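hi support,

uploading two proteins for the ticket. first:
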Amino acid sequence: MDKKQSLELCAALSNAKGAPGFEDEVLAVLRRYGEGLGSFREDSLRNLYLSRSGNQGGRPMVQLDAHTDEVAFMVQAVKPNGTLRFTTLGGWVPSNIPAHRVWVQTAAGDYIPGVTASKPPHFMSEAERKAQPAVEDMSIDIGASSREEVLRDFRVRMAAPVVPDVTFEYQEKHDLMIGKAFDCRLGCASILRTLDNLRDKTLNVDVTGAFAVQEEMGTRGATVTANTVKPDLAIVFEGCPADDTVAEPYMIQTAIHKGPMLRHIDARMITNPRFQRYALDLAEELGIPVQESVRTGGSTNGAPIHLSNQGVPVIVIGIPVRYIHTHYGIAAHSDVENAARLGCIIRGDPPPPAPRHFGADGRRADQPLLSPKAAPPWGRSFFVDPIKTVPYALYTSAKIRCPSWLFAVDLSPFPHIQP
């Protein structure tokens, strides 16, 4: 996939309307641009699965994750004056909502324009002007003058999804994309780009792209995809909040133009440190720019995935996006390219044999056997029996090359890589 095709994909995904639970347009775009990369299937929630061409079954499974929904709104009621009361879908800051164009779905399934409205300052009291805006005091105006007109002529009804009305733009000179829903349509694009990069490659693993619904409502879709795919390893692609315009310089950890961000922790997941270290070391070795962060809030689909199927090692490859969870996002296309490059760490190259000075349990040959509680970190194994164990040292030693599928699988089918 060349740059022109990639930008066309990003534009089509960004422009698609996909409120949580109403991701239909996004799935249509993914099916169109993913044709030839594998076989598609859906579940009843409309999670979309793309099984890579070349999957054989009976091998370790790698799940590539991104979510298809976006922060949006839903019509809660129609007021007598013809405006629409609404509720939020996903996390919005109320002050960011008014005075923007939106698309409102009709009973026929098409979308009509509207404007998020609030009381003009001319009619506000002094107390109202000083108060923070509240969503319940806002409305969406589609131009109707009565409830009857909304229902009869505009054909808008309760529970209609509403999304921001923003058209994707790209500035070639600055490599900047401006658009809506970059959280997480850029992640969706990264999955397709990764699978395209792996086209016709010989892998030691099976790979499935899982495009999950309703992430913005509490990572609901990924709870299902993880139990459907049953991955041994997962890579989550996410449009993540850039901090380069809001943080002090020493705290900037997610800047645009500086590569994808790999978080060590967020509110719901501590990233598997062995997998994380492997990805960071490999990025350095291959010259892929990356950033690291320690987050105290937020979460991704990594939260339900890493707790599924008795535990799954997960990393999150985040594409920095300024001003996510608003109508507009700003991101660098180069960060999408590098996210897809990093996503190809699942190649599955054979690892080197274990260093001779380590025994089968990870101890140095001259190290006395210690109790598990007293064993040093380099002497512990990452897994517990009855799964075949691999020395912890293999994962923590710098620059040791080992494939990502080594992290969470029963190694008995691979006798040539037993330590």
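and the second one:
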Amino acid sequence: MSTLPTPPITQGSKQISWLRAALRRLPAVAVWWLIAVCAVVITVAIEWSAVPADTTPGNEWLRDHFVRLHASSADETRIALVDIDEESIVALGRWPWSRERVASIIEHLVANYGVRGVALDLYFSEPADAEGDLRLAVLAEHGPVVMAQVFDYGNTPIRIGQLFGGVPINNAGAGTSSLTATNNLPKLPIPLASGYIANHAGLARAAHVGNIGFIPDADGVLRHLPPLTQFEGRVYPTLSRVLFDCCGRPVNAVQRSALPVQSVVNANGFMRVPYRHQLSAFNVSKATDIFNLRTPKEYLEGKLVIVGSSSLNLSDRVATPLSPSTNGFLVHASALSGLLDEQEGIAPRPLPGRWIAVLFSIGVAVLSVLAFPRLSALSNIGILLGASAVWLGLAFYLQPHDDLFAPAGPLYAHLFLL
């Protein structure tokens, strides 16, 4: 009868054996405190990790549920959307429409409906009908109109159309750069773009232009937008910010182009989109009704308008925390709504969610040292489950108040204590 060979003793197994022997020599209370400290370190590591929070398993899943529960069904009365939907395409002709038609819709919005400003979640990279292009160019140069261009953040150096707008940036270089503090602006990271698709040269005199490019999270859900984008030594703001600055409040020209969007950006220079309203809360008018002046004036008068499309033909749909299929212009509308909330002082007050998470973990860790040696295993499990339930309630409250904290952090600490 043969015997099985003895596995070789590796350096790793020696280190594990040494650690076990060292732990056996420690007093029991010291071991409990060591475990408690490790649990707190886990929370700190998750909360301040250099790795984006959306890569922590379960973290964004929790946040998405909190976002849906918090989202208000109250009408967003400051913003209106004009939708190039399937019905409009059937009524007015297949896309792309003539520039005459697009210009007529914008003119109706400004002159007949009295809107405060119009942003287009569309770009026109090639010239079309000359008269329509001329009308569109005049509106873009002299009217409260924001044109769009899209930056790409991959590795393809695409360059279509003529890029315009933006302001010079210092410290430009490889990787994520920072906006140097000028005009009392704070420094913040700015993502680099590799290419762009912009409007054709005939529209290059537009007074306002915003970026509609984005990068979804690792799971394909769009939770963040780049408030500023750096490309070849200049920085370009996002569409919602440009519409807000040009038509939402009085600011000087420098601030319009360079002021950071939202109050918080992550380490990569992206802001979390504040999905504070359910999608049904936004007032949507069909493009064909605007073109034919069928929409009541009170639906649009005095509002900020974003023109986009829900048509499958235009393929402008993304997954968001609110829905697996969301029209792209609703993302910009949510970002704009957040800016208006900040201006009016009704945005959720910032709270230090990461520090609260750490303090909560410290409390649970201390409780575990005091209670676990004296109670049964079942009772200890009950304590951790109760602490997790309390934390979920607290994390739900904190979610609108801190864009950076990881709600899953203390839960991983509880799992370690278990």
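thanks. also noticed: The CA atoms of residues 158 and 195 lie 5 Å apart.
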